[in-house]
Write the structure tokens for this entry.
Amino acid sequence: MRHAYPAEAIRAAEAPALAAGEPLMERAAYAVAAAVVAEARRRGLALVGARALVLAGGGNNGGDGLFAAAHLARRGLVVTAALLRERVHPEGLAAARRAGVRLLPVSGDGAQGHTGMPAPGLAPVLAVADDADIWIDAIAGIGLTGGLRGVSGALVAALNERRERSILDPLVVAIDVPSGLESDVGAVPGEAVRADVTVTMIGLKPALLLPPAAARAGRVELVDLGLAEALAARPAPVRRLLGVDVADLWPVPGPADHKYTRGVVGLLAGSDAYPGAAVLASSGALRTGCGMVRYLGPEGAARMVLARHPEVVTAAGRVQAMVLGPGIAVGAPVPESAGRALVDSEVALVVDAGGLDWLPTDPTALAGRRVVLTPHAGELARLLTTRGGDPVERSTIEADPARWAQRATELTGATVLLKGAVTVVAQPGGTVFSQSDGTGWLATAGSGDVLAGILGALLAGSDAPAGELAAAAALVHGRAGVWAARNRRGSEGGPSPVGDPVSATGRGPLDDRDPGAPITASDIAAAVPEVVRGILAH
Ligand SMILES: NC(=O)C1=CN([C@@H]2O[C@H](COP(=O)(O)OP(=O)(O)OC[C@H]3O[C@@H](n4cnc5c(N)ncnc54)[C@H](OP(=O)(O)O)[C@@H]3O)[C@@H](O)[C@H]2O)[C@@H](O)CC1
Ligand SMILES: [K+]
């Protein structure tokens, strides 16, 4: 499991070590220099003579940068340090000077000019940036408050603009947190550095896991500076499940299990308008490995479900988890079986799409129950607007998904899995999970119906907390999409997949060399067993 800690916890963990005189900044700077060297080598950049620009702010983050600049200069790189404050870390500055780093004070004059052109005071540093192979961002770390101001904001805006126009393609390494991100949250308050690699100290920060901020960090390397134990004693409000965590909580059947002990999933999904959702949610649940699926929706959809999955049962009966709402239109009346499940505290619930309207208005009504809502941003906007009183736009949610998912848990009393490129799961009063396991190919009709089925099966088959199971479902769903996109599997029941057996775990992102192939929701469901096997065999 990955854990992310707020700045306050990082500072508390480092305080005793600093008081004891441990050379944390030296260790941090050494790790940054090592990461720069390793990444430059990976890119085939000759180190001696390579040009690096360090952007140094006035705090300890700038100190890390200046010491790292000194290391790199001693390795033969040509290093310039842009000093963005009149006063920068004095020992760091002295070390950089001794190592032969060129020091370039950056004037803030006119930095906030209104013309949209780079401010005149920035011209010298932009000229160095244009020629540099490597930019190292040491403007600010956990000490940043609010959007980047003044000369730093203007400089980062100008650098981002140059990269966007593809004039330049330097290696960008951020120290601790890309500058411009507030380390405790996923929202991006203004201009922020876009890093290829972020070398982060002591522990991960929430901004490195949460959308949309996390996308600015690139690959994250954690350097614990010997403080992992001190930090582990503190609560981590943001977490990410890994495959091994999912293996630990996966309901693997034992010899004494039968279909009822494995868990029965009830499905109230699909409608005359959207019958396919019933099929896809059934596929998701069956491929995840529940004991039985009971399909309780309309007859037309039931026929389609049975045609694809003859193992589905359409008779009413006991269920351990119920999936309510995929493929059901907003405003549809509450079916009797859904009404019963909503008041039966023994039944875990997955509530999606049209089912979201069926939730009790009193958030305490679901207290103590395992209930997971699975909206996308548009559905969450609607739910927050109807329940919270004030209108909330989809774009507002996309600017800070974790915050709004948490707000929805307060208003409903349920766990909320907010679907997106990075999926966040908020629980009442609890940890937020942030899962980034998928690929853009997953954004296809019916994908969410499959996810609801996967989650229904996990809730039916395991007693683990709903939030962890929701994060596990997101991980498996994401990896199934990656696996399907990589192996270009045909429709469910089609020919055996071809491809590298290593990729059967679904691990590892698709990349420029193998961007993957288009997939359908059926492909995602079909890939789930391979992904589960990969996770369990790990
Ligand atoms: N202690 C140690 O030995 C170790 C510390 N470590 C490192 O220290 C970092 C924390 O250092 P920190 O506390 O000094 O804060 P830091 O992140 O440098 O930010 C302050 C600077 O940012 C500026 N600034 C703030 N807001 C701004 C804005 N909106 N827009 C523009 N500027 C803004 C602020 O300017 P000012 O407000 O003072 O004008 C000041 O210059 C941590 O992230 C890690 O990298 C680790 O390596 C472990 C060892
Ligand atoms: K930084």
